[in-house]
Structure formats: structure tokens, C-alpha cells
């Protein structure tokens, strides 16, 4: 029904408008008695064989929702009903910000991709926490970033603010220094600034009674030498793992006219590169840390390739938009078949 009816209708309208309409509709529909239970019964695959224990957390299945869809923690419970094993909210920043001027979200239908230049539009970390206080058991990742107006020299403070405010309300953290849509943000991926940032957060983390896993989300555009630096940094700072990968600035082999738009590209064009990065990190580090694989998962085969490349968990975003909720169920069912 999604691919034959709902998606063709939605794809006739502006993607950001559709996003807001969908969120409002899902919020309303799930308030109707029995609807949440009905969605869960149709979408969720519940089986102990799907459970994964990664960086000390127990995931009911390995298929999560990537950051960017539920930036402000508006819909994490409703989205979990579709069968996700975990939900990553954000990227959140210390202060609310509008993000970049519209239009800033573009479908590349011929390539099954999306270009976004949203620019960390969000209501601020404190607003997200107010919604997370109502969480009844969804496993939540908190993706944190810096405000656009904060210079890189002061970026650590922004990440620390988000870390402290979110700490009691998320299960793990993701440090986002790899979005291409905040000016100069990717410079924080350079070796020394990145070590300084991660060490500062780890210092805050170790002071807690029960520290939380901290992960680093990296760009797919890093060279092999830069990826070797990432491995070294993870080992030195002792963070819990890596999310590979964020969106790409590459426009190689695209057909859609929207390819000229600035921003980060996600979806099918990223499938191969993100898998290469996962395989590189796991092989070169001798599986020294967990990797969450994300980027271009549109089919069961895409998901299995990420896991076979070494990913401990996977996340969907653009594939969820193009393929619908059935993709989550299909992946989990395929994993059950493989477990026999």
C-alpha cells in the first residue's frame, strides 16, 4: 500500500511539507485507541534471536532509525511502532535554530536519493528533553552538534552542553562532526580537534556514575589515511564506536537534475561507499570497536551486506522514505531465516 498508493501521492508535493504533514498525521492517528497496537502487530517482528548486545546496551533488533528524521524527539514512540529496534534523535544543538533557508530538501527520484541542506534545524536540546521525559521504553540515541553561530574554537562547549542536558534521557550519544550543511563543521573531523572534542566528552562521561556509550558519526568522503586516523582516535579516546556514514558531498554517476543542489546526498548512491567504509574500519581495526552501518539501505540485500561487512547494527533513513515500513520487517524476517 505504501509504495503503490501513499508514496506516489507524497512524492507529488514538497518533501519538507510532506515530512511535517506525515509527522502530524502519525501523531494524530496514534492517539486513536487501538491504532498503535494495530501498527505494531502488522509491522514488528519480535523474536529473541534478533536481539543484539552492543556497547553494553540490549537492542531488541539491529535495525534502527538514523538521526535526521525525528530531530526534535517528536515521534520516537510512534516510529518505533513500525518495528525499529532503536531510534536516534537529533541532531540537536544547545540553542534552537531555524537551519538553512528553504528550499533545502530535494528528492533525486532517478537515483533513489535525497539531498538535504537542512543545517541542524531544531528546537534546541531542552525542548527535546521535555519530550524524552515521556519515554516509556524506546531505546534512544542522542545525536549532538554545535550551533551555526558557534565558532569551531568554542565548539567543545556546545557539545558538552548537549551532553549534560541529554545525559539522563538517552541511552547512547552520537557526536556529529560530519554534516556538510553547517559551515566548517567537517573541519572538526581533523585529527587534533577531534581528539580534543572526544576527550572532553569522555572526561565528562567518566565523571558520571553510569557512563553512556559515545559514538562518532563520520563522513563517507574520508580518505583511507583519514579513516586510519579515525581508528587511532577511537582507540586513544576509548569511545564506544563509530557510525558509518553520514551523507556525502560526492555527485558521482547521478542522473537526476536535482544533483546540482548543494547539500548532503543520502540514499542509494551511498550504498557502495558506506559499505566500503564499514569494511575498512572493521578489518583495519581487527573489529576493535562496534560500527553502526548506515547509508543506502533500500533492500534486504543492502542490509545484509552492511552486516556482513562488519556492522553490528544498521540504520535506515532514505530507504525508509522510498521503501516504507515493510523494509524494516523484511530485514528482520531475513535475519531470522539466516539464524536457523
Automatic annotation (TrEMBL):
Domain named Dihydroorotate dehydrogenase catalytic: residues: 50-335
InterPro entries: Aldolase_TIM (IPR013785), DHO_dehydrogenase (IPR050074), Dihydroorotate_DH_1_2 (IPR012135), Dihydroorotate_DH_2 (IPR005719), Dihydroorotate_DH_cat (IPR005720), Dihydroorotate_DH_CS (IPR001295)
Keywords assigned: Cell membrane, Flavoprotein, FMN, Membrane, Oxidoreductase, Pyrimidine biosynthesis
GO biological process: 'de novo' pyrimidine nucleobase biosynthetic process; 'de novo' UMP biosynthetic process
Transmembrane stretches, start-end: none
Binding positions (substrate): 71, 116-120, 176, 181, 246-247
GO molecular function: dihydroorotate dehydrogenase (quinone) activity
Annotated SUPFAM superfamilies: FMN-linked oxidoreductases
Pathway the protein acts in: Pyrimidine metabolism; UMP biosynthesis via de novo pathway; orotate from (S)-dihydroorotate (quinone route): step 1/1
Ligand binding (FMN): 67-71, 91, 143, 176, 217, 245, 267, 296, 317-318
Membrane topology label: Peripheral membrane protein
Keyword hit for DNA damage: no
GO CC term, one of those recorded: cytoplasm
Similarity-based family: Belongs to the dihydroorotate dehydrogenase family. Type 2 subfamily.
Subunit structure: Monomer.
UniProt name for this protein: Dihydroorotate dehydrogenase (quinone)
Record organism: Myroides guanonis
Amino acid at each position: 500500500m505504501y509504495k503503490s498508493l501513499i508514496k506516489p501521492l507524497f512524492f507529488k508535493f514538497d518533501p519538507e511539507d510532506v515530512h511535517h504533514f506525515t509527522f502530524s498525521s502519525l501523531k494524530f492517528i496514534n492517539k486513536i485507541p487501538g491504532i498503535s497496537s494495530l501498527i505494531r502487530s502488522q509491522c514488528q517482528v519480535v523474536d529473541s534471536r534478533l536481539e543484539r548486545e552492543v556497547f553494553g546496551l540490549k537492542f531488541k533488533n539491529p535495525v534502527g532509525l538514523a538521526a535526521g528524521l525525528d530531530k526534535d524527539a517528536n515521534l520516537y514512540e510512534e516510529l518505533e511502532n513500525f518495528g525499529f529496534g532503536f531510534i536516534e534523535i537529533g541532531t540537536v544543538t544547545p540553542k534552537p535554530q531555524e537551519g538553512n533557508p528553504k528550499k533545502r530538501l530535494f528528492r533525486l527520484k532517478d537515483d533513489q536519493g535525497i539531498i538535504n541542506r537542512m543545517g541542524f534545524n531544531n528546537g534546541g536540546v531542552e525542548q527535546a528533553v521535555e519530550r524524552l521525559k515521556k519515554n516509556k521504553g524506546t531505546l534512544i540515541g542522542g545525536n549532538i552538534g554545535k550551533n551555526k553561530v558557534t565558532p569551531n574554537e568554542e565548539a567543545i562547549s556546545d557539545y558538552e552542553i548537549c551532553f549534560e542536558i541529554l545525559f539522563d534521557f538517552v541511552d547512547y550519544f552520537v557526536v556529529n562532526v560530519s554534516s556538510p550543511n553547517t559551515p566548517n563543521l567537517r573541519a572538526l573531523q581533523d585529527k587534533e580537534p577531534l581528539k580534543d572534542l572526544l576527550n572532553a566528552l569522555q572526561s565528562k562521561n567518566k565523571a558520571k556514575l553510569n557512563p553512556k556509550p559515545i559514538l562518532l558519526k563520520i563522513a563517507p568522503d574520508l580518505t583511507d589515511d583519514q579513516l586510519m586516523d579515525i581508528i587511532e582516535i577511537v582507540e586513544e579516546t576509548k569511545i564506544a564506536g563509530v557510525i558509518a556514514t553520514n551523507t556525502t558531498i560526492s555527485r558521482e554517476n547521478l542522473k537526476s537534475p536535482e544533483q546540482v543542489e548543494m547539500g548532503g546526498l543520502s540514499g542509494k548512491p551511498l550504498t557502495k561507499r558506506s559499505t566500503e567504509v564499514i569494511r575498512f574500519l572493521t578489518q583495519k581495526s581487527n573489529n576493535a570497536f562496534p560500527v553502526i552501518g548506515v547509508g543506502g539501505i533500500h533492500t534486504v540485500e543492502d542490509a545484509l551486506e552492511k552486516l556482513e561487512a562488519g556492522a553490528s547494527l544498521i540504520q535506515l533513513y532514505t530507504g525508509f522514505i522510498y521503501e516504507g515500513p515493510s523494509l524494516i520487517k523484511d530485514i528482520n524476517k531475513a535475519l531470522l531465516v539466516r539464524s536457523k
